[in-house]
From TrEMBL:
Residues 14-239 form the ABC transporter domain. It comes from the Bacteria. GO terms for molecular function: ATP binding. Keywords: Amino-acid transport, ATP-binding, Nucleotide-binding, Transport. Belongs to the ABC transporter superfamily. This is ABC transporter ATP-binding protein. Pfam families: ABC_tran (PF00005). It comes from Actinomadura violacea.
Amino acid sequence: MTGTAAEAEVVPLLELAGVRAGYGAIEVLHGVDLALRPGSLLALLGPNGGGKSTAMRVCAGLHPATGGELRFAGRKVNGISAQDAAKLGVCSIPEGRGVFPNLTVRENLWAATGTGARLADLEEKAYGRFPILGKRRDQLAGSMSGGEQQMLALSRALGTDPAVLLLDELSMGLAPMIVTRMYDTVAELVEEGLSVLVAEQFARAVLPIADTAALMLNGRVVATGAPAEIEGRMAGDYLGG
Ligand SMILES: Nc1ncnc2c1ncn2[C@@H]1O[C@H](COP(=O)(O)OP(=O)(O)OP(=O)(O)O)[C@@H](O)[C@H]1O
Ligand SMILES: [Mg+2]
C-alpha cells in the first residue's frame, strides 16, 4: 500500500460536502461530508436514526439535498434524478433489499434489463457468482431465504454494470455467517474496481473489508479515518456485535 499525498489528491467518485437534507420542515442531515475514492470501500457506520439511509438516498438522487453539494467525479450534481444518477453509474440496494417477491429469480433479473443489459448476460453473471440462484431460477424470490434474496438484489444491481454501489444494511435479518459471505463477495467486487459505500449498524461485519470508515451521529459525520481508528472511537454498543 502506498498512499498519503498522492492518495489525498485523488478526486472522489462520489462526494457529499456540507450536505443538508430533511423531511418536511425537519432537518436530519446537518452538513454531511463524505468522500468515496474510486475503487475503494467506505463504511458509513453509526447507530439508529443517525441519518445513514438519508445520506445514501441523497447519493442515489432519491432524496434532495437542501444545502451543500453532491458531487460525482468532482462535478456538482445537486438535484440529479435517480434515473440520471443511475446513468452516471450510481446504483443502490435500498434498506430491506430490492427484489420483487412475487417474481421469480429470472423475472427479477429480467426486470433489471431496463438499462440495456441482456437477460442472458445477467443470468450468466448472477448464476456464475451465486450458483444457488441458478438452481432457484424459476422460484419466487419471496420464497427464498434472506441471504438468497440479498444475492439476487446484488446480482440485479451488478447487472447495470455500476461504477458506484450503495449498499444499505446488507446484514439486516441475515445470519452472521451469511453476512460474512455477502461481504466477502463485496470485497471481491471492490478488488475488481467497483467503488462501494456501505451503511451498516453491524460494524463488525464490514470493518474488516473497508478501506475507510466514517462515523455518523445525529446527522453529522463526526469522524472519518482508517477502519481500526474509527472502531476505536466507537462505543461498544454501536459495534452491533
Ligand atoms: N420518511 C421519513 N419521514 C420522516 N422522517 C424520517 C423519514 N425517514 C427517516 N426519517 C428520520 O430521519 C432521521 C434519520 O433517519 P435515517 O433512516 O436516515 O437514519 P439511519 O442512520 O439510516 O437509521 P437506521 O440505522 O435505523 O437505518 C431519523 O430521525 C428518522 O426518524
Ligand atoms: Mg438506515
